[in-house]
Write a structure and sequence with these properties.
The structure is a single chain. The protein is of the alpha+beta class. The chain is built from 10 helices and 15 strands. The strands form 4 sheets. Strands 10-11-12-13-14-15 form a 6-stranded antiparallel beta sheet, with helices on one face. Strands 6-7-8-9 form a 4-stranded antiparallel beta sheet, with no helix packed on it. A 3-stranded antiparallel beta sheet has the order 3-4-5, with no helix packed on it. The radius of gyration is 28 Å and the shape is globular. Keywords: 2Fe-2S, Chloroplast, Iron, Iron-sulfur, Membrane, Metal-binding, Oxidoreductase, Plastid, Transit peptide, Transmembrane, Transmembrane helix. It is found in: Membrane; Plastid, Chloroplast. GO terms for molecular function: 2 iron, 2 sulfur cluster binding; chlorophyllide a oxygenase activity; metal ion binding. This is Rieske domain-containing protein.
Length: about 425
């Protein structure tokens, strides 16, 4: 592995634990934005010397006499030391990397503007999403995948898409009437209502010159199941384009919606655990919410702490502790059961047909029962059936079972997801 040199300008590891250095310090969003993230833990610079990667050899040392440690003597501080994070030859400069040091989550990324590796606390100061799930933006900055905040190599926040420096906020919410039943919020194009404990409805009225007044409601029902688990039910009643629900299969609508809902799942899973660590009533000390688009989050947290004492009443069924984080494949495992079974069966049938056709071609070639042109057509048909079966199996696995959502290399679908999060999707 590479040997890491230690430049004189390093800061000790305990800089991540220092409350002043790790807290967001975004005082003025619409002016210059000072540092909100701690400086790099390690600025890994490989030296020319190399070490053998073979297993270490234990060497017996002579017995030493016991050393009496007098009371009050200095104790070793594990958090004031330097630790190599990763050999740079094993890191990809095109994407951020999640690592751990002493149980602390950090993100390692290449800052091409300073031509150096950077290591930050793996937590966006906005909503605590892991920065390692983000990407390196076209300007060479580290961008959070959740809401697009961008940070330079010194930890300065350079872009908040929901509150651009040269224009108004993308989405504005104004809280109204917060009480034990929930709260209301005004929108530029309608209103929003949170009905405690689990229903959120967004109502919008839009005038269309050609189609008249278009009304829609987007309702989310998030049912608490157990600590760390919820059931989401949603509906989209409207007075236009109703034919879509009658023509387009339900599973196809689910696939499209999952691009947004599922891609946020892991980010919310991590956020929930970080808020649990700091305490529900202390969330404002960890999250920095400067935009009007954050008003619904602020409203819910205020309601949750004021009227629910910051926790769900499980009536003794659960202790309230979150379960261990499952493997990512298990966390992201979901399916629309009826369509999943049908498409799986179709893929199996196509594969059997393909194998059967290839067998027919082989037998016909041996016996000369089918012309050369006929055998060619059967072979082509068998190959097409097999290719379609493999594509269908991949489609089912990705959209019905497990989608990893690599945010660092967004495809067209993920670009739409990011636009939706920022409030600029059509």
């Amino acid at each position: 592995m590479d040997v890491f040199s230690t430049p004189a300008h390093f800061q000790p590891l305990n800089s991540l634990l220092n409350g002043d250095s790790s807290k967001p310090k975004l005082r003025n969003v619409r002016s210059s934005i000072p540092s909100s993230l701690p400086g790099p833990l390690l600025h890994a610079a490989p030296s020319k010397s190399r070490l053998s990667s073979s297993s270490p050899v234990s060497v017996a040392s002579p017995l030493e006499p016991a050393i009496d440690v007098a009371a009050g003597e200095e104790k070793f501080d594990w958090y004031s030391q330097w630790y190599p994070v990763m050999p740079v030859c094993d890191l990809d400069k095109r994407e951020p990397h999640a690592k751990q040091v002493l149980g602390m989550d950090v993100v390692v990324w290449w800052d091409r503007n300073e031509n150096a590796w950077k290591v930050f606390d793996d937590m966006c100061p906005h909503r605590l999403a892991p920065l390692s799930e983000g990407r390196i933006d076209p300007s060479g900055r580290l961008q959070c995948a959740y809401h697009g905040w961008c940070f330079d190599g010194n930890g300065n926040c350079k872009l908040i898409p929901q509150s651009p420096l040269d224009g108004p906020s993308v989405i504005d919410f104004t809280l109204k009437k917060l009480g034990i039943e929930g709260f209301d919020a005004e929108l530029e194009f309608g209103y929003c209502k949170y009905q405690a404990p689990c229903i959120l409805s967004i109502h919008a009225d839009v005038d269309s010159p050609s189609k008249g007044r278009r009304r829609m409601t987007l309702t989310f029902m998030c049912v608490p199941v157990s600590p760390g688990n919820s059931r989401l039910i949603w509906a989209f009643p409207r007075n236009f384009d109703i034919w879509i629900d009658k023509v387009v299969p339900r599973w196809m609508i689910h696939v499209a919606n999952n691009l947004v809902l599922d891609s946020d799942l892991y980010l919310l899973h991590i956020e929930e655990r970080k808020i649990k660590e700091i305490g529900s009533k202390n969330w404002q000390r960890a999250c920095f919410l400067p935009c009007k688009s954050d008003a619904l989050v602020v409203g819910y947290r205020r309601w949750f702490n004021k009227y629910a004492d910051g926790e769900v009443d499980w009536r003794g069924r659960f202790s309230g502790d979150l379960p261990p984080t499952p493997p990512r494949e298990q966390l992201m495992d979901r399916s629309c059961s009826r369509a999943y079974k049908s498409l799986n069966a179709m893929a199996t049938v196509l594969e059997v047909v393909a194998i059967g056709l290839i067998g027919v071609v082989a037998a016909a070639t041996k016996q000369g029962a089918v012309s050369a042109a006929g055998r060619t057509r059967l072979a082509i048909l068998g190959s097409v059936c097999y290719a379609v079966s493999r594509w269908l199996a991949h489609f089912v696995q990705k959209y019905f079972r497990y989608h990893g959502y690599n945010h660092s290399v967004p495809d067209k679908a993920m670009v739409f997801v990011q636009m939706f999060r920022l409030g600029v999707a059509p």
